[in-house]
Automatic annotation (TrEMBL), chains A, B:
This is Aminotransferase, class V. The keyword Signal does not apply. One of its GO terms (biological process) is glycine biosynthetic process, by transamination of glyoxylate. It comes from Methanococcoides burtonii (strain DSM 6242 / NBRC 107633 / OCM 468 / ACE-M). The keyword Transferase applies. Its EC number is 2.6.1.-. It is an enzyme of class 2 (transferase). PANTHER family: ALANINE--GLYOXYLATE AMINOTRANSFERASE 1 (PTHR21152:SF24), AMINOTRANSFERASE CLASS V (PTHR21152). Residues 28-326 form the Aminotransferase class V domain.
């Protein structure tokens, strides 16, 4: 099978539009020249619209993890307490990063279950410099209550540091309205740019909290702020990825955020309808303040089936979906509806899932899933 | 002027070969799949040959500065002393990074002058966990004594952390023979890949020295080691830049390191011969253990001429050279011979420099520079 002819239906990296790929093959330019600065400013303007923020916004040459660390590494000193909300792998990552810089106050929920806001409030009431939460927990397909945690953070005077890696650009994220002090996104998810960049918005309050003796160096957000005033990055940027990012952001703007959010949410709804029709259960356990993710759907593997067999069955057909990570390996499978994924891509994915399930003797007949999905797409 | 038709003759980013640019426009792949791992291993094998090392070698999605910080951030704790050798901007950067993690013992030489090894030995004799040096000080066009510092580090039991950002892949760098515990290179310099990646080799001794309580997270070299055992990166890699890196490394292998080193050194020698012929002085002040850089040449601006006028004059002709950085701004200008730069590119650069100098009334007649350079190239 030709690798370049497979369909990436994972929760990132997502397929990148041909015009974005072409943009990356432009000859190099001097990153200290006017042309780079113009591109830098153009990207920042578009990103602020997507983040719905007027805060400072920076692009780091590094993955989403780099920006997660920048957020904590610049604000948290060794005696500072950080409430880390965890209900999946990326919540756990925030906890692990926080542990390198300060004192972790963990709020650990079973992966895939909903966040207990009473416990979060209880911990914040004891005093903390920051609270971290993953808005869209990619590993579990669940959307966590950002508005509510933002309100609690404000009430108790803590910084709200939010991983929006797989929500910003795909879901409705209101950074300023929700009071998110630092919000992080990855390039290779809902924005559908190539992997390798991450972007983060930083509030005035967050900058004021950067009062520790030594900030990290490569991830020094004050250095990013200083350079951004000259429309530059403090260190050599990954120029081709900026070319790609700019083109990907233009596609986002052309579609418009409202349409983009609706399309991605409809994709996830179509997947859920299809799963329901063929008797597959969703993985997340929702409550009043959580929701199924609208950019990645996580499903339980049917009784007696290792989810890696589903993933591998799909791979044989040329469609790349995701299994479970770490403790969820073998137990769940995940399908992305993020980025520029079109209804036809999801229809093909569901069609082949039915085929794989029939081969695994999970279902006898194909068709119910695609029919249910098609009905959802009719609402688009 | 069309930006894509300019010639980059700076000390990085350097022009990237069309086949490297094309490689970056390949569709995305899953970075947890077999194809990425095969590419990862292929790059690592080629890089070890270029570094002349059998140490572990990692590729970080981030600039050379990220790898410089990884080296210090993983090994230096707050009470550890680091001897930082400085005779240019990047030596200063090592000092600045070291100050965020430990106790700096600075060996500060005037930028562009040669390193005083007696002072280095004196400081090392007082006890230090590490010594940092930039092998090829890009900001000053001088090559520093790596073999000698490696011997001193060994004698006094310090780690030798070397910035080879603009020497590895262009100059003869013997990481193992010289006893370099951590050696760093940037993708966009002598290797002629796009900017955005940096690579570093790490000795067993360096790993043993990583005994502090909390390593950085994104730049945690133990995490890189653990993932490399599975031919992966710990966090999402910048996939298109890996596509580009692999293709750029293939070009390096096709040329062969011996030929590559000779070509780049000859390029620098041709620049020096041309400058001598037209009466321009080199910036570095050499001694018995230093040398002119063979990948970037730094020249003093003629009496009464702001070097930015030279740079801007060249830019008007479509040729991008570099001025001086920070305290050297206006005082020096720099021309790269690194990467895949061919004699014809340097001949054109020298020809236009003569034109600019004539326009600035520095010289009356053109031709002496190109003639002198041509003679040097005849030896290739």
């Amino acid at each position: 099978m030709d690798l370049e002819d497979t369909l990436l239906m994972m929760p990132g990296p997502v397929p990148v539009a041909p015009r974005v790929l072409r943009a990356m093959s432009r000859p190099m330019i001097n990153h200290r020249g006017k042309e780079f600065s113009a591109m830098f400013d153009d990207c920042t303007t578009m990103l602020k619209e997507i983040f719905q923020t007027e805060n400072d916004l920076f692009t780091i040459s590094g993955s989403g993890t780099a920006s997660m660390e920048a957020a904590l590494g610049c604000t948290i000193d060794k005696d500072d307490k950080v409430v880390t909300i965890e209900n999946g792998k990326f919540g756990e990552r925030f906890k692990d990063i926080a542990a390198r810089y300060g004192q972790v106050v963990p709020v650990e929920c079973e992966w895939g279950t909903s966040v207990d806001l009473d416990v979060v409030e209880e911990k914040l009431a004891e005093g903390a410099k920051a609270v971290t939460m993953v808005h869209n927990e990619t590993s579990a397909g669940i959307r966590n209550p950002a508005l509510e945690v933002g309100m609690l953070a404000k009430k108790y005077g803590a910084l709200f540091i939010m991983d929006g890696v797989t929500s910003i650009g795909g879901d409705d994220v209101k950074v300023d309205e929700w009071g998110v002090d630092i919000a992080v996104v990855g390039s290779q998810k809902c924005i559908a740019a190539p992997p390798g960049l991450s972007m983060l918005s930083v509030s005035e309050r967050a900058f004021e909290a950067m009062n520790k003796e030594n900030l990290p160096y490569y991830l020094d957000l004050k250095a990013y702020q200083k350079s951004a005033a000259k429309s530059q990055t403090p260190y050599t940027p990954a120029v081709p990825l900026f070319f790609g990012l700019q083109e990907a952001l233009k596609i986002v703007m052309e579609e418009g955020m409202d349409a983009r959010i609706k399309r991605q949410a409809t994709g996830a709804a179509a997947v859920r309808a299809a799963m329901d029709a063929i008797g597959i259960e969703m993985f997340p356990q929702l409550n009043a303040t959580s929701a199924y993710s609208s950019t990645v759907s996580a499903m339980k593997s049917p009784e007696g089936v290792d989810s890696n067999d589903i993933k591998n069955g799909m791979m044989d057909k040329g469609i790349i979906i995701a299994g479970g990570q770490n403790r969820l390996s073998g137990k769940i499978f995940r399908i992305g509806s993020m980025g520029n994924v079109a209804p036809k891509d999801l229809m093909m994915t569901i069609q082949h899932l039915e085929l794989v399930f029939r081969n695994l003797n999970v279902i006898n007949e194909m068709g119910a899933g695609t029919e249910a999905a098609a009905k959802v797409f009719d609402t688009l």
